[in-house]
Amino acid sequence: MPANFKINGRSVENLDIDPMTPLLWVIRDELNLKGTKYSCGKSLCGACSVHVDGELVRSCSFPVNLAEGSEVTTIEGLSPDEAALHPVQQAWIEENVLQCGYCQPGFMMAAAKLLERIPNPTDQEIKDSITNICRCGTQPRIIKAIKRAAQLNLSQETTPKTNIR
Ligand code: FES
Ligand code: FES
Questions:
Q1: For the CA of 40, the nearest atom of ligand 1
Q2: 51 and 119: one domain?
Q3: Is the CB of 38 under 6 A from ligand 2?
Q4: Closest among 164, 59, 158 to 106, alpha carbons compared
Q5: Domain for residue 130, yes or no?
Q6: Which terminal CB of the chain, N or C, has fewer other CB atoms within 10 Å?
Q7: Position 82 in a domain
Q8: pLDDT band for position 23 (50/70/90)?
Q9: The pTM of the whole model exceeds 0.90
Q10: Where does residue 165 rank: exposed (0-12), middle (13-18), buried (19+ CB within 10 A)?
C-alpha cells in the first residue's frame, strides 16, 4: 500500500514503499532528509528521534505504515518559523554543545518535546526524561542547553537564521 503523510509541512503522496520499512529509511533515503541519524537501529540510542503527530518516536523501529496520515517533523522542520531557529537550536549553539555532532539532532528533538511537557525542567527531570546516548560525553552541555532553551522559551528570544554562520 502506498504511503501518505506530511513531513515538515510538505505532503508525501502515494510513496511506493514496503509498509514495514522503518520511517528512518524513508526519511533519509526516499526523502533525502539526512539530519535524522542511524546508530543502534534498536530503539536504544535516540539518534533517529523524530516527532509523529507531536509524539517523540524512534524512527529506526517505527514502520512507515504507522505514520500513515500523520504529521512527521524532523530536525529540518523543528523550527515552525522558517526564518528563525527553534529555541533548542539556538541554545545548542550558545552552549557550544556539539562534539562530533552525530547524536545531536536526536537530542534536540527529545529536548523540544521535554520542554513542551515540562517548561522549566530540573537537572534530574532532564536526566530522567532524555534517555538518548552521546558517546562523545556532551551530556553536561546538553543539560545546560536545555535549561538555556527553557529561558529562551520563557523570554521568547529568537535569532534569525540568517545571523547564524
Ligand atoms: S538508531 Fe534508532 S534508537 Fe538508535
Ligand atoms: S556529539 Fe558525538 S556522539 Fe554525541
A1: 4
A2: no
A3: no
A4: 59
A5: yes
A6: C
A7: no
A8: very high
A9: yes
A10: exposed
